Amino acid sequence: MKQFEIFTLKFNGKQPQGSWSEIDLTAEFTCNGKMKKVYGFYAGDGQYEVRYLPQENGLVEWKVTGLFSAEGKEECVPCTDGIHHGVVKPNGTAMQYEDGTICRTFGTTVYAMMHQPKEVIEQTIDTMLHSPFNKIRTCVFPKHYVFNENEPEYFAFERKGDGSFDFQQPCMKFWNAMDEMLQIFDEHEIQVDLILFHPYDWWGFSKMTKEQYLPYLHYLLARLAAYPNVWWSLANEYDCMNAFSKEDWKSIENYISQTDVYGHMLSCHYMLEPYDYSCENVTHCSVQGDVTEVENLMKQYGKPALMDEFGYEGNIFCHWGNLSAFEEVHRFWLCCVMGGYGTHGETYMNDTDTLWWGKGGRLVGESPARIGFLREILEELPAALEPVPSSFVTPELLLAVKNGKAEIPQDDFIRAVLRLPAERAVEIVRNLKKDTRIYTGHCGEDAYLAYYGRHCTAEGELELPENHSYDIEVLDVWEMSRSKVMTGVSGNVKLKLPGKEGIAVLAKCTTL
Which of 51, 54, 21, 17 is nearest to 35 (CA)? Predict the structure, then answer.
């Protein structure tokens, strides 16, 4: 038994009488005085399994009860393969693996990967393994949407004679394929953000009752929770699922949190109404929209902010799916330089409607290589980035000045803004702050990364600590080039820039 690698107990017997989703098979694993209770599952063909993820070294004792009885013990030894680091956990507004290794996710989206022909699934997996992405968002249930109208060969559950789905009978071919995908990605350090529900459906999965979704969740967790690389996304755009109430979502959230003894990352994605990311069970913010909101989300919730949808590189007619490659890269940089985590997508039309965002296949866009360049830069840093606050007047400070509770130096612009009604003044300041800001992140005093984005300035300025020396590089995010332009500098630094879009400046301390 190795730490952070799945340990499996297997049993042979007759197929279950009654439900295949909820069977009477449990196991208690005890290590260093800590006990974890996990559920077994039926794997088909008379095979039963109990999966356990050892998270600590030491002697592990187990006892199996229910359909089978067994007990034993085995020493869990440290994992030394350099691949398995345990489950990802939040660490303030950053993330890390259980062994303390920094986790930086560079995500992509293939919603209906598991509902395509086998050759397309295999091609998608191969593409992922040769891409810069180490996290993928994908659905358990198929998606019915534009460019996604094919009927899957297999579903998560078998059909009854009347064509409806039997949520007490999992389809083993589907779950075996899910296992294979998760295993491959686990061996290549790729996180899988499983989307458990979504509204883009014509089979009825978006209208499941509690009596239907609880057996599904029980089987899902019994079978998949031991994978160290799995995440739980309660839904994609949960607020569009009209058949589910707020009580349903809370019930699902609580059930997963209580049943998943390993504490995987858990969140919920929305369209218009944000999920309650302040909940204790929710580990991070999973949002879509304006990437510059990352800083506000981190400040509001004190949790990692994942921009899981901010538009896709492509050429389809949908407004969210025809960004230029540069715009995709630009938004990724804006998100990451403030300490957030971005998620890519690609929607280029082709003759087979095999668009990456929906079905997978091959990546054809120009943004992945540039996102890989960003990953290279960030993985050189000693810690996660945190935003350097803007020096521009904040809306909160502006209101305090208007109310006579604070004072600031006033130029013609500030005086003009102060004459406006409070709501209009705040709107102007907020928009100007967003448009004019040079977004900058820092790792303590070890490194500073400033992204100039759309600004085409020929001269930049960086405020560095006076008590350390820094080497400075100019980065071209599109050309994927880096040039060292200064060494041994500190304090207020002015430097020449190319005067074009997509320029960043990296300062690394050489004296710490």
Answer: 54
Query: Is residue 181 a contact partner of residue 191, using CB atoms and an 8 Å limit?
Result: no
Q: In what helix (H) or strand (E) does residue 396 lie, and over which residues does it extend?
A: helix 395-402
Tally of CB atoms within 10 A around 461: 12
Separation between Cα atoms, residue 224 and residue 227, nearest integer Å: 6
CA 95 to chain centre: 10
Rounded CA-CA distance 339/319 in Å is 27
DSSP state of 367: H
- CA–CA gap between residue 41 and residue 29 (Å, rounded): 16
Q: How many CA atoms lie within 13 A of 111 on its CB side?
A: 26
- Measured CA distances, 131 to 87, 127, 322, 389 (Å): 22, 6, 21, 33
Mean pLDDT by 10 residues, the chain (512 residues): 98 96 98 98 98 98 98 96 96 98 98 97 98 98 94 97 97 98 98 98 97 98 98 98 97 98 98 97 97 95 98 97 98 98 98 96 98 98 93 75 80 82 83 83 98 96 96 98 98 97 98 86
Q: Write the secondary structure of 74-106 as one string of H (helix), E (strand) and C (coil).
A: EEEECCCCCCCCCCEEEECCEEEECCCCECCCC
Q: Are the CB atoms for 133 and 368 separated by under 8 Å? A: yes
- Rounded alpha-carbon distances, angstroms, from residue 159 to 44, 156, 169: 16, 10, 8
Structure tokens at 359: 């079905």
Q: 60 with 73: CB under 8 angstroms?
A: yes
Q: Which of 250, 248, 247 is nearest to 266 (CA)?
A: 250
Residue 205 has a CB neighbour count (10 Å cut-off) of: 27
d(CA 215, CA 403): 57
Contact assessment for residue 458 and residue 499, using Cβ atoms and an 8 Å cutoff: yes
- State the Cα–Cα distance between residues 292 and 307, nearest whole angstrom: 10
Q: How far is CA 473 from CA 204, 496, 502, in A?
A: 54, 11, 14
Q: What does the H/E/C string look like for 321-337?
A: HCECHHHHHHHHHHHHH
Distance from C-alpha of 444 to C-alpha of 191, rounded to nearest angstrom: 27
CA distances from 257 to 17, 218, 240, 277, 301 (A): 29, 12, 23, 14, 19
Q: How many CB atoms lie within 10 A of CB 80?
A: 9
Whether the full predicted model's pTM is greater than 0.85, yes or no, is yes
